[in-house]
Design goal:
The complex is a heterodimer. By secondary structure, chain A is α+β, with helices and mostly antiparallel strands. Chain A is built from 26 helices and 28 strands. In chain A, the strands form 5 sheets. A 7-stranded mixed beta sheet of chain A has the order 8-10-7-11-9-12-13. About 5% of the residues of chain A have low confidence. By secondary structure, chain B is an alpha/beta fold. Chain B is about 25% helix and about 25% strand. A 9-stranded mixed beta sheet of chain B has the order 2-1-3-4-11-10-9-6-7, sandwiched between helices. In chain B, strands 5-8 form a two-stranded antiparallel ribbon. The chains are: A alpha+beta, B alpha/beta. At the A-B interface, helix 8 and helix 10 of A face helix 1 and strand 6 of B.
Chain lengths: ~775, ~250
Amino acid sequence: MTITEQPVEPLHRRLGVTDEELDAIRDRLGGREPNELELAMFSVMWSEHCSYKSSKPLLRTLPTAGAGVVAGPGENAGVISIGDGLAVAFKIESHNHPSAVEPYQGAATGVGGILRDIFTMGARPIAVLDALRFGDPSEPRTRHLVDGVVRGVGGYGNCVGVPTVGGELVFDPSYQGNPLVNVMAIGLLEERRLTLAAAPGPGNLVVLFGSATGRDGIGGASVLASATFTHDDPSKRPSVQVGDPFAEKLLIEASLELIERGLVEGLQDLGAGGITCATSETADRAGTGMLVDLDAIPRREPGLEPFEVMISESQERMCAAVRPDRWADVREVCERWGLPVAIIGRVTADGDIVVVEGGVDGDGRPLPSARELARIPAAALTSDAIVHQRVALAPTHRRGAPAPGVPAVVSDSLPERGMDPGAVLLALLGSPNLASRRIVYEQYDSTVGADTVAGPGHGAAVLRVKGTSKALVASTDANHGVGRLDPWLGAAMSVAEATRNVSITGARPLGVTNCLNYGDPTRAEAFWQLSEGVRGLGDACRALGLPVTGGNVSLYNESPAGPIAPTPEIGVVGLIDDVARLVGPAFGHVGDALVLLGDTTPGLAASDYAELAGAALEDDPPSLDLAREAALQAFIREAIGRGLVVSAQDVSGGGLAVALAECAMWSGLGAQVRLALTGSPAVALFGESPSRLVVSCAPLHAPALELLARRYGLPVERIGSVGGEGDGLVIESTGAGPMGAAEDRGSRVADALEVPLADLRHAWDHGLARALGWEG
Amino acid sequence: MPVRIGVVVFPGSNCDRDTLHALDLAGAEPVALWHEQATLDGVAAVVLPGGFAYGDYLRAGVIARFSPIMRAVAGFAATGGLVLGICNGFQVLAEAGLVPGALLRNTSLRFAGREVTIAAERLDTAFTGALAVRGPLRMPVAHGEGCYYADEATLDALERDGRVLFRYVDAAGNPAGPGDPANPNGSLRAIAGVRNAAGNVAGLMPHPERAAEAILGSDDGMGIVRSLVESAGRAATSHAPVEVGAR
C-alpha cells in the first residue's frame, strides 16, 4: 500500500475566497498577507450573502426615496412614518438553503433572524408573513420539507408571540431541490425611538447580550447561502443554526426596554457573519473602529478556536454600543430578563476591527501581554468589500420581452376541445397552488397581539394600530411562472400584484421590501435574470411611486435538478387611515352590482389554467401596462375612500372565474354573471392578465363607480349581480368572439358555468390536504 | 374607582399585553406582576396569561408552577381570591393543581390556531356572570397542548358539581366531543374551561382577550373579561373595608 499525497487546496479557496478576491484582500491590508483568522473574517463578510458583491451594482438602480421614509436600504429594516409619531419597520429575508438541509431549524431561525432585524430598530414586531415555495407536493421529500418548514415557522413564531398573518405557499417543479423560505416581519415603533445599527463614540463599550456563542452555524452564510447547493448533505447540518424562541422573546423585551430607556447608543443583531459582521458594520457606519476582547465573549463550550468565536452564527444575540456610565443599568436590564451580558470590547477611533487575546485593562486597552490576533479596517469588511461586475447574457431561445415599439406576438392556442368550464373551475380551486391554505395556517398563531383584523386565508393581512383609527395592510407576492418566461415582466407583475392586494382594501401602499431569489450569478443567464428582475422591480416601483426600503438577495438557488424559476418575492406594507373604511374580498349583500375593471387581454402562458391543461405553450404571458396598473390602484383607493365599494378582489391566479368563486365562497353568497366574449372563453374565464378587479357595490352606487373608473381611463363593465336564483356561481357567456368557440361546439351551453357554493368550497377546502397526502 | 387586577408576567408570557389591554377596556386598572414577586400588590384578582412560560420546552406550565409568584397566587386562591388562567395560564393552574385535570397535546399533534365557538355552561359564576347569553361565543384558540383530560370519575364529578365552565360547541350549539371538527384539540367531553370546587379559580384554553373588540372580528370574549372585572369589583368592596373607608 502506498500513501499518495492529495494536493490540498489553499485555505482561501476552501473558505470560498477566489484568487482574485485574495488579491483584493491583500490590497485592503496594505499589501500584507491576511492571517487565518483574518481570512476567515473576510470570507464571511465577502460572501455573497453579507457583501451583495454581485448584486450591489444592480440594487443601486432602485428607487429608495419616498414620502415618510425614515430608514431605507442599508439599515436592518426599512422604516416609514405612519403619522401620530409612529412608524412601521418591515423587511423580508430568505432562509432557503438552511431550510433545505434542516427544514424545522432552517425555517425557525429564518423567523428569528428577521424578527431581530425589526426589534433592533426599536420596533416591536407585530406580524410575520412567510412565503414558502416547494417542488412537487406528491414527492415524499417535498412533503417532509413542507411539514418541517411549517412546524418550524409555527414553533418559533407561536412561541415568541408574534402572529403569522399571511404569506404564500407555492409549488413548482423548479423548487424541487431548492425550496424557498422567505420570511417578512413587520414592527411598530415610536419614531423618536428609532435606533440605528451604528457604534458611535470612541470609548463607548461594546456589549454583547443574549445567548452564549457556540459552534452552531459556523459559516452559515458563506457555506450555505453563497454557493450552489448540491444536496441535503448531512455534513452541512452543523452550518444550520439552531433556534431558541424563548431566548428570542427575552431578547425582544430586553432590547425594547434598553431602547425605551435610552440606554444604548446603537444596536445590532447578530446574524450572518456573527460578531465579525456586527462589529464591522456598526463601526463602519459610525466611522469608528472596535477593539474586541476575545476572552470576554461568553461561550457555550471550551476549546473554541478564535475564528469560530468570530464567525459563529449562534442565534439570539445582540450587540450594543453603550456609554460607560450606563453599563450598570444595561447589565441590570439584561440580567432581569435572564440574559447573559458581557463587555466584549471598546469603540475606538482608528477605524480598525482589532481582535485581541490575553486581556484588556480597565480602560479597554490591551494588556502588554495581550496578543493581537487580527487587525482589519472595518470598511474593508463592509462598505469597501469587493464588488464584482458580472456578465449578463440573455438566453438565445428567450421569448420576446416587451420592448418599446415592438408589439408582442400574442397567440392563444390552448386546446378548447371539450372544455367544461365548471369542471375546470373546480379543478383549479382544488389545485395545489390555488386551494385553501387553511391546514397550514391553522398551525400558526395568527391572533396573538390582539391586532389582527384580517389574518391568513382571504387576501391581504390587516393589523389595526392600537390607540389610533389606522390599520396596516400587508401582502407578499412573487410571480415565478411569468418570471421564467420573462424575468423583467415577472418582477414587475410581482410588484403590481403585491401592491394591488394592498390597494384593494383601501390602503395606500407605503413601500416595498424584496427578497430576490435567483440562481448562480457567475452564470451569465442567471445573472441576466437577476438584472432583468431588478430592472422590473425598479420600473414597477417608479411607476407606482413607491420606494424600495430594503430587502435581501439570495443567489445560488440551484440544485442538480437545475436553477429555480426567477422568484422576486415582494413584500408590501400599506396604511389605511380609518379602519372602519376597510374593504375585503367577500361579497356583502344580495343584489349588489358586480363590476369588472380593466382589460382582459390574451395570453395564457404561465397561468394556472395552462399548468392544469399540461400544455407546453407556444404562447406569451399577458402583458402589463404599469401606467394602467397605477391608475387602477389609485381608482380603487379613491372609490373605497368615497364609500362606493362593498367588496373588491383582484383577478390573479386562476383568472376571473376563480376570483368570483373566492368572493362567493368567502361570503356564502352566490353570483349571477354574464360575460360578453370577445375572444377565447378560456382567456375570459381563466386568463390571468393583470390590472383587473372584481368589485361589488350597491346598485345605487354603480353609476358613480363607473364614472369614476372612466375618469381614471379604466375599462369598466357591469357583469352581473351578487346572489340570484339558487345558491351558486353562475357565469354565462354571450356573443361569439373571433374564436367562434361556442358555435363551433354546436352549443351555447358549454359556455355557461353553474356550480353550487358547496361544491366550490369542497374543492377549495380539501385540495391542499389531498395534494400533500395529509388526509386519510 | 377602577378595580386593580394583576396580570402575571412570566418570562415567555406573550399574551400579557393583550390581557392588560382587554382589562383596561373592561374598566379595570390592570397591573403587571413580575414572576419573581412574592406578593400580589393588593390586587383584587389575578390573571395568568397565555404564552410559553419559561419556554415550555419540557411541558407546558411545568416550570412556571414553581416560580415565586405562584406561591403567592396559590395562597391568594386558598383564601378565595379570584384567579383566571387563559391558555398557558390554564396549563400552569392545572400543573399547580389549582384546577382539576390536565392539558395534553392536541390529538392532531399539531398546533391549533383558529377560531372556535364555545358556550358557557352556566351564567351564575364569577367568570360568566356578565355574559348576556351562554353562547355561542366566538374566539380564537392558539395552542399545541390544549386537550383537556381527566379520569372518568373526575369528569363525572365536574359535571355533577357544575364545575365545567365552557364547552366547545358545533354550529348547532351542541357540545363537540373529541373527533368533532368543532373541537380543536380532542378535549374530553368538549371541555374548554373548568373551575375549582370553591368556584374562585378557573382556566380556559380559548382567548377571550383576543375577542374583546368588534374590529377584531368578535367581541364575545369581552363578556368573560367583564365578568371577572365585575366579580373582582364586588370582592374588593366586600373584602377591603379599609380601602373603601379611606376613600
